[in-house]
Structures are given as structure tokens and as C-alpha cells.
Amino acid sequence: MLLGEHAVVYGAPAVAIPVPALPVEASAAWSGSLARQDEISLLTTAVVDTSVLTLGTDGLHRLISAFRKIAGVRETAWVDVCVDCEIPFGRGLGSSAAHARAVVLALGELFGRQLDDRAIFDLVQIAENVAHGNASGVDAAAVGSPVPILFSDRVAERLSVGFDGVVVVADSGVAGKTKDAVELLRQRFERAPESRMDFMGRSADLTYAAVKELTEGRARDFGSSLTAAHELLRGMGLSTDLIDRLVDVALDAGSLGAKITGGGLGGCAIALARGLETAGMIARRLEEAGAVRTWSAPLRRCVDDGG
């Protein structure tokens, strides 16, 4: 997520990008075991705790049930699914959505079904809603896009990019608490209803301004919008001391802008660099400041052709 965290749940726009450095691959095969009651088994290489794995399995069962209906699979089938996921869970990086999309594509290949983009999105959302409650859909859309997207009213629009840059992603090492953050905001909005409209309005203004800056190639202004978005989220109590420190370090190291990303109360920070050399220096500084690992996501100049 570049902009629009939390506000997107209430209908405001958001901007997100894919992170090619963190791939997810899934394979599905007919099971050799007919004795079990479950139709599907899940094996993942990701290190997750029991609660996350249970949520993932529950979402997978809902997903395969819906897949059978959408794909017209009538016969009972026992399937083994293996997922190789390099995205750390609980970091606000869309791991559950990427996980679900990989499984959907693997099932489609196994059953010989061609699913259109909308069907894939709907299936991923089924698993996402189990994992997150009322998922906005932005993660489900972003993990299937090769370019940045603007997500609004459950519709993803591919964005043109007017400059070359690099988004450095820094893992704080602390799992985010999306559900806690959502509840924190909900309670705050109940206590002060006007704060909800103010938050959504400011978030939407920043997001639309950033889209214009991104497409027009105004990298420095785009970076400033990212930093302003961090201040908005921090003011709502969604950041942490460590994330704030990582943001400050990134800015001191030459980042054009930096912010928290994802649900908040932990997770990752992101920083915008103009080139690979600066991105590398920022990544080193972030790791020295406490980030347990970093990745890079390219922002490449491109013009959306509607394809």
C-alpha cells in the first residue's frame, strides 16, 4: 500500500503496487489419500503461527467451495495444495491475498478451468474476508497487477508512472495488528464522528494528489505526499516508535518520502528513492536502524494503455 490505508475500508481511494521481489507460487495435485474428510489439504513453506494457519485453512475451504460453484466442478475431489510463499505474514504486504490468488490459479490449472479477472478477484476476496473480516479488496487487486493501481469503489485502475524510482520496503520485525488497528479507528470514529469524515477526506485528497504527481512524473512531490500520509496515519495512533524511527532514518538518508504501510501497529515502512544507488544506501541505513530485512519494488516509467 502506498496511500489510502484504512480509509479504503470506508470507501476512500487507495494506491498500491506489486512487489516482484516477494513471489508466491502454488501447485495443486490430486491427492493420493481418499480416507480423509477434508477435500483439500494445505502445505505452506511460510513460517506462521497456529492462528494464522487456521485462518488460512478456513479461508481455503471457503475458497474451494466457491471455486467448485464458479468453475462448475460437480464431482468430489481430494486435492493437495502446496504454497511456496516468500511474503512474511502479518507485515501489511498482502500475503494472504497473494497466497489465495496463487491457490486459485493452481486450482484453475488442475481442473482445466479458465477464470476471468473478476472471478479470480471474487475468489480471493472470499479468503480475504475470512482472514480480515471485511476486506476492502485492494490487496486482492494489487497482487494481480503488474503495475501500480488506483483502487476505488471496488474497481482497480492501472496507473501510468511518469518517473523511474524504487520503493524500499523495510520490515520492522514486529507483526502488524490490522484487526486491532481497525477497531482502534472504529472506536475513535464512534467517540468523534466528525473525525471519520476528516480522516477520509484528508486521505482521499492525498491519494488523488499523489496519483496526479505519479502520472505527471513529479517524484519529489509524490514523495512529499507519502510522508504527509504517514503523518496522517501516525496522528491516528496507527504507527509505532520503531516505524517512526525508520521513517525518519529513510528521510535523513535521502528518501523523497517515507511512511508506514499496511494495517499498522507494526509491520513495515516504505521509502521512495530516485535510483538504485540511493535505494541501496537507504536500505542499509534502515537495517542499521533496526529493520530486520528490506526489499525493493521498482517504479518504472510507463503509460497505461488500458490493457
Summarize the structure.
This protein is an alpha+beta fold and 307 residues long.
Describe the SSE topology:
Blueprint: E1 14-16, E2 24-30, E3 40-44, H1 50-71, E4 79-85, H2 95-111, H3 117-132, H4 138-142, E5 149-152, E6 155-158, E7 165-171, H5 178-191, H6 193-216, H7 219-235, H8 241-252, E8 257-261, E9 268-273, H9 276-288, E10 293-299
EC number: 2.7.1.36
Keywords: ATP-binding, Cytoplasm, Kinase, Lipid biosynthesis, Lipid metabolism, Magnesium, Nucleotide-binding, Transferase
Pathway: Isoprenoid biosynthesis; isopentenyl diphosphate biosynthesis via mevalonate pathway; isopentenyl diphosphate from (R)-mevalonate: step 1/3
Q: Which descriptors would you attach to this protein?
A:
single chain; 307 residues; alpha+beta; Ribosomal Protein S5, domain 2; Alpha-Beta Plaits; four-stranded antiparallel beta sheet; three-stranded antiparallel beta sheet; 9 helices; globular; transferase; kinase activity; kinase
Could you describe the 3D structure shown?
Keywords: ATP-binding, Cytoplasm, Kinase, Lipid biosynthesis, Lipid metabolism, Magnesium, Nucleotide-binding, Transferase. InterPro entries: GHMP_kinase_C_dom (IPR013750), GHMP_kinase_C_sf (IPR036554), GHMP_kinase_N_dom (IPR006204), GHMP_knse_ATP-bd_CS (IPR006203), Mev_gal_kin (IPR006205), Ribosomal_Su5_D2-typ_SF (IPR020568), Ribsml_uS5_D2-typ_fold_subgr (IPR014721). Pathway: Isoprenoid biosynthesis; isopentenyl diphosphate biosynthesis via mevalonate pathway; isopentenyl diphosphate from (R)-mevalonate: step 1/3. The chain folds into 2 domains: 119 residues, Ribosomal Protein S5, domain 2 (2-Layer Sandwich), CATH 3.30.230.10; 140 residues, Alpha-Beta Plaits. A hairpin with a 6-residue loop joins strand 8 and strand 9. A 4-stranded antiparallel sheet has the order 8-9-7-10. Strands 1-5-6 form a 3-stranded antiparallel sheet. It is globular and about 60 Å long. The two termini are 22 Å apart. It contains 9 helices and 10 strands. The chain is α+β, with helices and mostly antiparallel strands and 307 residues long.
